[in-house]
Amino acid sequence: MKYSFVSHLYCPKCGKNYDTEDQNQLCKCGSPLLVAYYMEELKKVLRPEHLNERRPDLWRYHELLPVKREENVVSLGEGMSPIIKMDVVGKDMNIPNLYMKDEGLVPTGSFKARGAAVGVSKAKEVGVTELAMPTNGNAGAAWSLYCARAGISSTIVMPVDAPEVTKKECLAAGANLFLVDGLIGDAGKIVANAVKEYGMFDASTLKEPYRIEGKKTMGLEIAEQFHWEVPDVILYPTGGGVGLIGIYKALRELQELGWIDEMKMPRLVAVQSEGCAPIVKAWEEGQSYAEPWQDASTIAFGINVAKALGDFLILDAIRQTEGCAISVSEDSIMSELRTVSSFEGAFVCPEGAAAFAAARALREQNWIKENEKVVILNTGAGIKYPNTIQGDSNVLHPEEALVMDKDVSR
User: Fold this and answer.
1) Domains identified in the chain, total number
2) 3-class DSSP state for residue 267?
3) Which of 72, 247, 318, 405 has the most CB atoms less than 10 A away?
């Protein structure tokens, strides 16, 4: 059986098709490209039970991924992150069926490893030797490390305020790292100019077609981990929104294969910060595209994206699933981060904390019903953001006794 059932690339705007053997970027009309598969052919040869004996990483779904030859796979064991029942926080929110999919446990400590694994593998397959990308931190870290494993040179441009750990990861991987005194949009302009001048492959978000395919495996895994009974709501912290687009694409493909109920689609929720909420504004105004957000700023640095290239795809996924977009305050992000960490022992990233804050708000509004099954994507490890938790610790001299306040409760 073929390793991949990839067919072609297509433009969701103008419908033009492209060959997956070429080094493709955007469509000529300026739109991101999406990957199509021979679904009717695949339906005849692949069934859910075939996955049971496969290795527990995202390449277990290789027929639904774009890499045609297994020898081109570049992997660090990414995928199959756990889904954890959040009993204490769920009770606190009055969402008894609350779950977290913890992407902080994949290689490089964030969900960006998924996009990097598939994107770099396909780049290797089509002959890319040098690529460049702008990043808020985690994507650059992941792509530089996977490029190192693939023998591909990487140039990474990120805001000077990006998490320090992600800069170190890029440097450790031997990437050409540049910092810009601005936002990711400014980094993107620098990369675009460098790509033109030096002929590097542009791996910017959605400017290459395969990052989505890596991210969509979160949706495939959620369906499999719930035994092909999808949850009612999935909340996703949204910057560039590739993961949300990918999850939607994955679930549609599973419906086409007949593996999940074609009448049951989780309501997708795009979560943003009040300091940077272009998707929320567009959704509330009934728009198909989002306007650039002015003076974007949030402690959840990974979702600090003033203008997403795939905004129309994000908004379409929300509407097609009867989902919504919601913004949360900076204070609620930090409060929820501490709540989840202290109640459940899960040190989530600020972006994940934003999704928990959104779940709480939507339950209070009764948009989320009490008995619905709800999945929150924690997109990275909290330890990658050491500066988010502030506080003083008592320093004792060796001869001092420990004095504790025993009146501590939840």
Assistant:
1) 2
2) strand
3) 247
For range 177-201, the mean pLDDT: 95
Question: Is 394 within a domain?
Answer: no
- How far is it, in rounded angstroms, from Cα 242 to Cα 410? 36
When pLDDT is averaged across residues 326-338 and rounded to a whole number, the result is 97
Do the beta carbons of residue 303 and residue 377 sit within 8 Å? no
Residue 344 within any structural domain of the chain: yes
User: What sign results for the dihedral spanned by CA atoms 220, 221, 222, 227?
Assistant: positive
223 and 343 inside one domain: yes
Q: Once rounded to an integer, what is the mean pLDDT over residues 52-56?
A: 94
Per-residue model confidence (pLDDT) at position 1: 85
Residues 6+ apart with CB under 8 A from 316: 288
**In this structure, are residues 351 and 327 in contact, taking their beta carbons and an 8 Å threshold?**
no
- Mention every residue, 6+ apart, whose C-beta is less than 8 A from residue 236: 243, 244, 247, 268, 269, 270, 271, 355, 377, 379
Question: Residue 53 domain-assigned?
Answer: yes
| CATH (domain of 18) | 3.40.50.1100
pLDDT digit string, tens, across residues 137-155: 999 999 999 999 999 999 9
The parent domain of residue 61 ranges over 6-75+110-202
Q: Which two tokens stand for residue 153?
A: 């040179």
